[in-house]
């Protein structure tokens, strides 16, 4: 069987895809062709035949899938069309139902507004009747009373006329009593405020007088303290001057004593210095004399040694003089 001959008619396509096993004959045809197909894969021709046959099977697959997809797309549009029709019917019927009920709805709305207006007015009167007079000034209570009195009670109140009358009477009585009580309270408060003001003025005056007295006493006390301080300062100044004079006298006395002591010390130092200088001169004279005698003895001994050595006495004296004068190199006399 040639796979290209597989065809699904449009008029039967929906039944083929929606009826159980209705598609199986078409698949079986392909299955039979696949199972009976033979080709030599070892030859180029055989491989070409296999490739061509597989392409035909794929073509059948694509064909059947295309028909099924087309049917599915068509079926998907059906719920949308149904929903659109349902919505149109719903909206139309709701509008018609609302239009049919409109007279009743309008009456109910008007009735609700009428009842609410009566109830709100009655509630307002009850609210005002419950206001505490101690929390509102008299002028506000009078404004509330005027508001209550302006509310009429009669046929216009309809079935709530009795409630209107009861609420209005209660509010008028409460406000009248409240205005009277509040008036007394405000009068008492005004009297108390005046008493407090007078007390504050007296207290202020007393404070000012007290401040003035304290200032005067302070000034007097400060003046007395200043006078006493000035007297103490004067006494202290006199005492300091006396002490300073005594210190100056003592300083002069000590200075004189120091001068006398320094003069005596200087005189004693001069005397000691003169004695020391004299003693030093005498000691130096003795030393020079002793040195002279020592040198003379050494020189005589040296001269005697030269003479004993065979040098003539005059020549020996000349040599000795040269040695003593240091004119003979490397030769000296130890004294």
In helices, the fraction of residues equals over 70%
Q: For the record, give the distance between the C-alpha atoms at the N and C termini, rounded to a whole number.
A: 170 Å
- Rg over CA atoms: 77 Å
Provide mean pLDDT, rounded: 86
What's the tally of helices?
A: 6
Largest sheet: none
Share in β-strands: under 5%
Overall geometric form: flat
Low-confidence stretches: none
User: Helix/strand/pairing class, anyone?
Assistant: mainly alpha
H-E order: HHHHHH
Q: Can you put this structure into words, describing what you see?
A:
With about 325 residues, this protein is mainly α. Among the domains are: about 5-100, no CATH class; about 115-215, no CATH class; about 290-325. It is about 85% helix and about 0% strand. The chain has helices spanning about 10-20, 25-35, 45-130, 140-150, 160-310, 315-325. The longest helix is centred in the C-terminal third of the chain and has 148 residues, at about 160-310. The model has no long low-confidence stretch (mean pLDDT about 85).
């Amino acid at each position: 069987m040639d796979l290209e001959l597989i065809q699904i008619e449009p008029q039967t396509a929906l039944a083929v895809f929606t009826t159980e096993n209705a598609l199986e004959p078409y698949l079986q045809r392909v299955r039979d062709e696949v199972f009976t197909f033979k080709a030599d894969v070892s030859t180029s021709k055989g491989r070409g035949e296999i490739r061509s046959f597989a392409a035909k099977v794929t073509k059948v697959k694509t064909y059947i899938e295309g028909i099924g997809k087309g049917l599915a797309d068509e079926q998907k549009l059906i719920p949308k069309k149904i929903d659109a029709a349902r919505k149109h019917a719903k909206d139309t019927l709701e509008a018609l139902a609302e239009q049919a009920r409109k007279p009743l709805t309008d009456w109910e709305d008007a009735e609700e507004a009428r009842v609410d207006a009566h109830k709100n007015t009655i509630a307002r009167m009850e609210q005002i009747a419950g206001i505490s007079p101690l929390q509102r000034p008299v002028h506000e209570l009078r404004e509330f009373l005027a508001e209550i009195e302006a509310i009429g009670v009669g046929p216009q109140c309809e079935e709530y006329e009795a409630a209107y009358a009861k609420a209005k009477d209660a509010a008028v009585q409460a406000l009248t009593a409240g205005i009277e009580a509040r008036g007394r309270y405000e009068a008492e408060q005004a009297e108390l405020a005046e008493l407090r003001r007078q007390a504050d003025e007296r207290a202020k005056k007393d404070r000012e007088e007290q401040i003035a007295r304290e200032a005067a006493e302070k000034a007097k006390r400060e003046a007395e303290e200043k006078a006493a301080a000035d007297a103490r300062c004067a006494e202290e100044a006199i005492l300091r001057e006396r002490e300073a004079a005594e210190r100056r006298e003592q300083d002069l006395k000590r200075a004189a004593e120091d001068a006398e002591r320094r003069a005596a010390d200087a005189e004693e130092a001069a005397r000691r210095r003169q004695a020391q200088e004299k003693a030093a001169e005498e000691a130096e004279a003795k030393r020079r004399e002793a040195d002279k005698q020592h040198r003379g003895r050494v020189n005589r001994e040296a001269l005697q040694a030269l003479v004993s050595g065979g040098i003539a006495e005059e020549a020996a004296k000349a040599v000795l003089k040269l040695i003593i004068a240091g004119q003979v190199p490397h030769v000296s006399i130890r004294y």
